[in-house]
Amino acid sequence: MSTSARAMAATLSDGSGAERRESLSSQIDALSRELAHLRTLAHAFERWHQDMIALTEHSHNINVAGDDLTDLARNLIIVSLNAAIEAARAGSATHGFVVVAGETKNLSRRVQELTGEINKHLHKSLLLTTATFQDIQAGGKLMMAAVSGLEAMSKKLREGLD
Amino acid sequence: MADLISEHGRQNLARAFERAARETLIVDVNDQISIQDSEMLFHADPGQAILLITISSFTFRLLTIFQIAEAPALSAYYVRGAAGRSLQEAFAEVANMCCGAINRQLALTWPHLAMSIPQILDTRCLAFVNDLRPQYLSQYALSINEAVKLRATLCLCCSAPVEFAALASEAQESSGELELF
Amino acid sequence: MAQILVVDDSSTVRDEVAGFLKGSGLEVVTAVDGRDGLAKLKADPGIKLVIADVNMPNMDGLTMVEKIRSELGNQRVNLVMLTTESSPNMKERGKAAGVKGWIVKPFKGAAVLEGFKKLVA
User: Fold this and answer.
1) Which residue, B78, B125, B171, C23, is the most exposed by fewest CB within 10 angstroms?
2) How far apart are CA C82 and CA C13, in angstroms?
């Protein structure tokens, strides 16, 4: 048990009324201090809240980049199809291929840029999400343990009163 | 924003990590470990992974991030005897013990602490550690018997002033024994 | 029928602890997290002692022991935590759930064996 609880238990056996009152009073003070400490758990909730906001914004960025990528892929297909149709109509493949090659190079470069951007976004997202998840995992245990500590102090106080 | 952690606090935190590393990262008590302060390096080496553990309190969280490479020396050192076990799995428990030791030292000042389970991530994630908005960031190059290399990053995020007091003397409380309730 | 259940998400720890106990003549089964541990305990009424980690995925060790207490009752099995956590408040939570003992990793085999044997008897 914590040091303060042990100190409480030690003072419990005192016989005289005044001493008993004093020991109970100091136990109540210790409980109040623990409760004041527990109030700071608001900080943990606030940081999880901030983390979630950042993650949501970041997910939005990934979605936007993803949409751009889809648009690009669609454009690439359309350009290729058009060039193939043109070439077939004109009876010459060469001109069509030249057009496609030029457009494809531009689009491919843009696709690479975007995939690179998305990859970075994903790695950032993975780190932030994992950090928050771990914080919540540990935070939950932290709070349950704090509650157990308070329950133990309160139990000792009750035993002192009986 | 005023500094939420003093220089003294930073030094004590660094010391807590070094002490924990010395105690838990070596397999044999006769092995030599060297821990050097390092500049922040975020580049991704192919074949590396990062292992992340969080110690949380109400007003702060401390991330310990190990960079481990699939190198023969590292595997041979930590994966002993067990066939089929990966380096990542073997090292995850070592990292768990290291953070447990950091935790015990921080507990001298902070009664409210808990740890997460370890998580393996792609090394490329390390480049974004500043997006966690840390108040304190430090990196170390570790070397065991001059052959086994690791890197570790400490990342402290706090929302209120945080002090890490002077640490206990070298004598550890008896861990490893059964405490009966 | 096994006597001891070792619950830890680390295969290193499961192998080390189970190996040590088997070497001392005890019968051991293992589980990988709290959920698995609870299921294996329910499946084998012969288990007398559970040695469990706290920090595990899916269900942590303290949640598992609280469920053991509420779903199976304390009398059936002795519970010991083997963990890197040493917080007095966490120990209080364990105590309230009926945990009999706490070992901070790494465990010292010789020192704990006698205690384990008594808890299995």
Assistant:
1) B171
2) 10
Q: What is the pLDDT of residues C91-108, one digit of tens each?
A: 999 999 999 999 999 888
Domain spanning C4-120: CATH 3.30.70.660: no
Tens of pLDDT, residues B99-148:
999 999 999 888 899 999 999 998 989 999 999 999 999 999 999 999 99
- Between B114, B122, B124, which is nearest A141 by CB? B114
Name B103's Cβ contacts closer than 8 Å, sequence gap at least 6. Answer: B55, B113, B115, C84, C85, C86, C87
What ipTM score was computed for the predicted complex, to two decimals? 0.92
The full set of domains in chain B, from first to last, is 7-158 (3.40.1550.10)
What Rg value do the Cα atoms of chain B yield, rounded? Answer: 16
Q: How many CB pairs under 8 A join B and C?
A: 91
Inter-chain CB proximity A135 and B116 less than 8 Å = yes
Both structure tokens of B64? 């310990």
Residue of C nearest to A144 (CA): C93
In this structure, the number of other CB atoms found within 10 A of the CB of residue B124 comes to 20
**Which distant-in-sequence residues (6+ apart) come within 8 Å of A35 by Cβ?**
A150
